[in-house]
Structure formats: structure tokens, C-alpha cells
UniProtKB/TrEMBL annotation:
It comes from Alkalibacterium pelagium. Keywords: Transferase. GO terms for molecular function: aminoglycoside N-acetyltransferase activity. SUPFAM superfamilies: Acyl-CoA N-acyltransferases (Nat) (SSF55729), SCP-like (SSF55718). This is Predicted acetyltransferase. CDD domains: NAT_SF. It holds the Pfam family Acetyltransf_17. The lineage of its organism: Bacteria, Bacillati, Bacillota, Bacilli, Lactobacillales. PROSITE patterns: GNAT.
């Protein structure tokens, strides 16, 4: 008989051996300490068969920025199973339990990194983030000059507050990035001795941009840019000039950017070998609570009826009335639409892509995943703020 339990520290060794087997990583003190920290930070659920742990996952208690609003997000990670139980429904039971507990805790969004997009679509998750990958040749840096104000190489322990502040200022007006707490910074972002930091300050001494990078590949010949966040164009240019100063010593430069971020204004040659890749998935955990917290753009007094289908989280399935008037937004359950011309129907996958700004309502209506008139889809789109989904964390 299968039983779902919350894993306390007494199950740590069982969970560790499951992760070692499933992910094929070497047993070391570092790997054990890393998992111990993750289990202590997140909520871990395990599936037991005959009192033996066979599958598990962790829900990380994150928050994300959404155009000035902060939303609670459950990050799903470390989804593991022994091979002999795969395909027998234990992961589905874990996911259903995780979603239910997230809802009870007031979590409205959930992200995960899929091994298979098709697999996690079964649980209501859909692609919500893309990234633009650049493979930059050293020759492209020919036009770079030394910045007027030198960029400093700094130590994390000495400049962590400046780096955190730059990240928060940059991300608080974005769609979807993690609002990093100290645990995330220490255990996810700056947890490797390979990570190097550079900081740009303006003429007043105020921190305006940072660069996190490392050397990788054969003979450490690749310059990998982990993060580059600048608050001004001058800071951005200075950080790229700092990178360009390394051109003679490296074979390639790797950078992963937001999906709409273009770099041609910074380089002598425009061919930077960009490649668009799908990234992490998301789903709305609690549609009603999410709509109540969503920062709608007030255009005019109007009403919409949003019907949701959700095979995994039954509390989402139904019809919601969305009323906008005098700067206020009200959300309530409804039995049937009062005005059919303002009725829209879609799966939780589609609603997630729409509200995460991954696709526009008119595009979703055109492709058939959003059932509505073209005019209604456009009217709903007009009520949404504008943004591009952006995520710099992985779990």
C-alpha cells in the first residue's frame, strides 16, 4: 500500500540514498550537506511502499516579483523515484498532495524544471519561460574600450548587500523572477567557489551593476557569464567592457539572457549566435486567489467570465466572474456567464501562459487554446499589464 508522508529529518538518510540513486551523483560530504540544507529549507514529501521510501519531492517556499507585486510561489525540485516504481502513480500522488498543501499555505504559483515537458503537462504545468543563449566569439569584442570608471573584482562576503540590492531593484518590476532571500543567495546562487564577482559603481560610488561569472571547459577556456544585471546603460556597457578585456585569454563567451534581450548595440559584429530555448514551467495553483492578487491594468469598467478546466487541482475548475470598476477588481465564483460576449474558456495551462505574459490572449484565441471571440480576447489582453517573463533561478 502506498502512503504519502512529510519527510522529517529522521528520513534524511533514506532521502539522500534515493537522490544519489536517481540522479547518479557521487556521495560526498558536500552533496550530503547540500541536500540536508534543502530538506531543512523546503517541505519534503515522500511516497512509501511497505514502509520503504520510493519517491520524493521538495516544495521550496519562494516568492516572486510580478510588476511590483509579490506573489507566493512553490518551487518543485528533487522529484525522484526508484526505477521499479516509475509509472505506478506515486509521482502523481506526490504532485497532487503538494498542490493541495500549497493552496492551503496561500501559494498561488508553482514553478519547476522539467525532465520532460509532456510529463509535467499532466499536472497542469506549462512552458512559461524562454531564454536567449549567446555563444560569443572573442573577435566580437574588438570595439570595446576600458571603462571610464573601472569595474572592480570583489568578494561576495564583502559586497553581498550591494549585489542583492542591484538584483532587487532590477527584478521588482519584472514578471516572474524569484525574490531571493538569504538562503537562496547562499545555497543556490553563490554556493560555488568557482563563482567570481565584479561590481560597477557610478561616479558617486553607488553600486549600479554586477557580474557573476566563472571559467569552465577544457583548460578553463570558456568564460561563462552566470548573471549580468545593470541599473543603467552606462553600467551595462562598463560590465561588457570588463568582459571584453578578457577576450584574448578565452576561446568562447557564454551568456544566457532574457528572451527579448538583444546585445547587438554593444558589439562591433552583430552575429552573436543567439539561440532561443524553452526553460522552466509554471502553473497557477489557486486561480481565485491569483486573480485577486493580480495587478490588472484599469482600462474601463467591464466584466469577464473566465472558465477554467484543471484535471489535477479540482478547486480551480469552474467559472470565475472578474469585475473591474472604479479602480477595483473583484473576483467571485459564478454558475453561468451573464454576458456570453464576455466569456472565455481555457485550461489551467493556457491561463498560466496568458497571465505569466508568455503568450497574448489574441494569439491563444487564434491557436484555439483560448475559447472566446477575438474581440473579447483583445479586451482581456488590454486589461493586463505589459511585461516579459524572466527567471534567473534554477531548482
Amino acid at each position: 500500500m502506498t502512503e504519502i508522508r512529510e519527510l522529517t529529518q529522521k528520513y534524511f538518510e533514506d532521502a539522500y540514498q534515493l537522490n544519489v540513486y536517481a540522479f547518479h551523483f557521487e556521495e560526498t560530504e558536500d552533496s550530503k550537506e547540500r541536500l540536508f540544507n534543502e530538506l531543512a529549507y523546503g517541505q519534503t514529501l515522500g511516497s512509501f511502499s511497505d514502509d520503504q521510501l520510493t519517491s520524493a519531492l521538495i516544495v521550496f517556499p519562494f516568492e516572486v516579483y510580478y510588476l511590483g507585486t509579490i506573489l507566493k510561489m512553490g518551487g518543485i525540485g528533487n522529484v525522484t523515484s526508484y526505477p521499479e516504481v516509475r509509472g505506478k502513480g506515486s509521482v502523481r500522488q506526490l504532485m497532487e498532495r503538494a498542490l493541495k498543501e500549497m493552496k492551503e499555505q496561500g501559494v498561488v504559483l508553482s514553478y519547476l524544471s522539467p525532465f520532460s515537458y509532456h510529463f509535467y503537462r499532466k499536472f497542469g504545468y506549462e512552458v512559461a519561460f524562454e531564454k536567449r543563449q549567446y555563444d560569443i566569439s572573442p573577435d566580437a569584442f574588438g570595439s570595446f574600450k576600458a571603462p571610464e570608471i573601472p569595474v572592480e573584482r570583489v568578494l561576495w562576503e564583502e559586497q553581498k548587500e550591494a549585489v542583492k540590492d542591484i538584483y532587487d531593484q532590477k527584478m521588482k518590476g519584472a514578471v516572474g523572477p524569484v525574490k531571493r532571500d538569504d538562503w537562496v543567495w547562499e545555497n543556490r546562487i553563490m554556493n560555488s567557489e568557482k563563482r567570481k564577482l565584479a561590481l560597477y559603481r557610478d561616479e558617486t560610488g553607488a553600486p549600479k551593476g554586477y557580474l557573476s561569472y566563472e571559467f569552465s571547459g577544457e583548460n578553463q577556456g570558456n568564460f561563462k557569464i552566470n548573471e549580468l544585471h545593470a541599473l543603467t546603460g552606462r553600467a551595462e556597457k562598463a560590465l561588457w567592457e570588463y568582459i571584453g578585456a578578457h577576450a584574448a585569454g578565452f576561446n568562447a563567451f557564454e551568456y544566457t539572457a532574457r528572451s527579448d534581450q538583444r546585445l547587438t548595440h554593444l558589439f562591433r559584429e552583430a552575429d552573436l549566435n543567439p539561440k532561443m530555448v524553452s526553460s522552466m514551467m509554471a502553473r497557477i495553483v489557486d486561480m481565485e486567489s491569483f486573480l485577486k492578487q493580480f495587478p490588472f491594468r484599469q482600462t474601463e469598467n467591464q466584466e469577464f467570465w473566465l472558465e477554467v478546466t484543471d484535471d489535477t487541482a479540482e478547486w480551480n475548475a469552474g467559472l470565475f466572474k472578474l469585475s473591474m470598476s472604479d479602480g477595483n477588481v473583484q473576483v467571485s465564483s459564478a454558475e453561468q456567464p451573464e454576458e456570453k460576449s464576455r466569456y472565455l474558456k481555457a485550461s489551467i495551462h493556457t491561463w498560466t501562459q496568458l497571465f505569466m505574459q508568455f503568450k497574448k490572449a489574441t494569439d491563444l484565441q487564434f491557436e484555439g487554446s483560448l475559447i472566446s471571440s477575438k474581440e473579447t480576447a483583445q479586451a482581456l489582453q488590454d486589461s493586463l499589464p505589459e511585461g516579459v517573463p524572466e527567471l534567473h533561478d534554477y531548482f
